[in-house]
Amino acid sequence: MKISPSIRNNLFTNSHPTGCEMSVIDQINNIKKEVAFDGPKNVLVIGGSSGYGLATRIGLAVGCNANTINVSFESGPKGKRSGTAGFWNNAAFQKHISTKNNTHKDFLGDAFSNEMKEAVVAYALREFGTIDLVVYSVASGARKNADTGEVVFSKIKSLGKDVIGKTVDIVDNTVHELTVTGADEQEIKDTVYVMGGSDWKNWITILDKNNLLSEQAKTIAYTYIGGETTKAIYRDGTLGKAKEDLEETTKYLNQLLEAKYHGEALVSSSKAVATKASIYIPQMPIYVACLYDVMVKEGVHETIEGHKYRLFKDMVYGSKRIIDEKGRIRLDHLELSDAVQDKTKSLMMQVTDAEIKDLDGYKLFVKDLYNLNGFRNDKVVYDADVNIEELNRVYDYTRI
Ligand code: NAD
Q1: How far, in Å, is the centroid of ligand 1 from the Cα of 73?
Q2: Which residues line ligand 1 (CB under 6 A)?
Q3: Which ligand 1 atom is at minimum distance from the Cα of 246?
Q4: By C-alpha distance, which of 26, 8, 9, 1 is closest to 371?
Q5: What predicted TM-score, i.e. pTM, was given to this entire model?
Q6: pLDDT for 6-31, tens place per residue?
Q7: CB–CB of 86/94 below 8 Å?
């Protein structure tokens, strides 16, 4: 079977297993070049199949030889469907993570559900005994209420006035206006329910009740703050409200972990990178393209895995923590430096809609989006057949 990208309304509807595999190999090899550090032995990553969660899993499995459990919501191939990129990332991780005497387990299914939490608890009690670090890296558009069965959807909206920004069609590279309307109270509440801190709290509660957290256990979740140009839609919008809730949850979890385990709960603000969602947030594609352009030229552009490796080596388990007045770890200090922000802002103002496609930063942003789904990877021969069934057969996971 040959697979070429299928993109509808800027959304990839398929993925390329070999391309995903190549990019996981690259991430693993990049961390192998870094120095090892003393970190957690047993790690649970919730949302570890792509983006920041996958980068975290690789950073910790390679960087400090950790055992990992990954919970992710991914589908395998079925009929003409190729399977999701996260599914193939998981399969590639399992195939290439050649750490010695380590255990890496994948659970596929809904992290919000009670069944998933119970299955992970049972496995961890049996195989790990205790967990040293819990990473919460879920990004989802919907959450099924585990008690009522109701499905709640998050909304990318502003608060109050409509906000107009730009987005890019990644197929023909044209710029379009994108308007987000003001959210009502229910939409804010729903977005906080899906993307806020309550499920993270549920995970820590069930792990605590089952005595699964080790002495000095830590937990961390990822937030985004961003600069002035994305403020109206991100930080001052529904997603920002959800992130405020996530950050507030850290305080509660920190008290629990500190008192009972001499541990800690942390929240870290990561830099903006290309993800499935970034294209639907007005201004975000233009901002990320210009930001990449500036950060590459300034010599401060990091790979996603390099970013997370630095988080754990220097800031979570090291002595170089950068903390702001709200207690958040500011891993995004390079993105948000005055120099980078000023240059990004002036580039955004200067560049015309027609010129965007010629920016090196834009090309990198679009390449990242294709790469996320296994496409446009220089190491893949896309004319070659992919034996999806065979790849699927050798990947071992538990579906809940
Ligand atoms: P992503 O889409 O690449 O990954 C999301 C992960 O969540 C995947 O592993 C997916 O399988 C999992 N997931 C989604 N729904 C699930 C469910 N119901 N059950 C189990 N797993 C589920 O997202 P990302 O960009 O890596 O974002 C991860 C976190 O980092 C989010 O909290 C996001 O807000 C934050 N963050 C992202 C950026 C950015 O620019 N991408 C910047 C700062 C912070």
Answers
A1: 10
A2: 47-53, 71-74, 86, 110-112, 137-140, 222-224, 270, 272-273, 275-276
A3: 32
A4: 26
A5: 0.97
A6: 999 888 999 999 999 999 999 999 99
A7: no
